[in-house]
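Render this sequence as a predicted structure.
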Amino acid sequence: MDHLLSGDERETVSSIRRTHFQSVEEFEAALRSVWDVEITQAEAGPGAATLWSTTTAGCLVYGGAGNRAMVYSGRRSEGYWTLTPITRLSACGRYRGQVLEDGDLLFLDPGGEVFQQTREGHRQHAISIPVTMAERIVASEHGLPPESIVRQWSRKKAPRASARLERLLVQLLSGKMSACTGTHFDEPELVGQVIAETLSGSAPQTLRSSLANRRRIVSQAEELIRTRLNHPPNVTELCEATYASRRLLFNAFNELLGRSPIAHIRILRLHAARRRIRSGANETGIQEIATELGFSHPGQFAIDYSRCFGESPSHTRRFWQGIYFAKESVLAKKTG
């Protein structure tokens, strides 16, 4: 959980952290304790995000907001079962190809795949509960087999329960430690209240979607792409690796990531270049970095980079080197 509670710019009130990130790469690193994902921008311009987080009753409570449409791909942590309400600020996005609607409740399985598309201005809150705790409560308090609830990814339309969970998470992240009932906040009972609330009413719908094959295709394609960023596979090679036709390959990428495989490869390579350029300890020249990642035309690389991130590669280098050297100076003064 420590990664989720870290950052350069933070405000702390009763162990509540508010961190603003000036790049999607920083935001991605901060979320590593709950999922292992790569975050890429889905629209041009400087990307930034804000993360609120706290721990209570052994659980991780957090919320995030982004200024750009983004695409998330990877897997969730094996150690947590996550519940998240969908509001008007997170509706209309997609999760594993499913369009999310205001009033939905999502039950996210431990270790499950992440294919999420968010829009500009997206804001979402969630609570991640340790799997052993969740399974014990589901079995003992509700008499349900944990594998039917905790080990499946599902959703249900529950506007009232979704709104109540949203209010509770916002209260916890704002320091207003009162239970959703308005009574004195009872931390040990929090998880039981949350699970009882989300399981009340109709049962969640387990999503054994027809997109399972498409998720396999995209996962296998991404695995190949990431091992060959400097010499990216072409469409024929992706079809061979995933046993998919060209049409199915393109449909799978568009459904889950909102972009074609060709566009996804280009964006992954640009983000890889950005990570290397912004590394304060990296003295490799920008043109050399571009060449290492297979960009054969420096001029086109600079144009594509600027279109994606709203700034030139040299601006990225200067900005992040300034931050890196400022940190080094502060550290030297403290240890001097």
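Summary. The chain has two domains: 2-206, 212-325. Residues 5-14, 178-184 have pLDDT under 50 and may be disordered.
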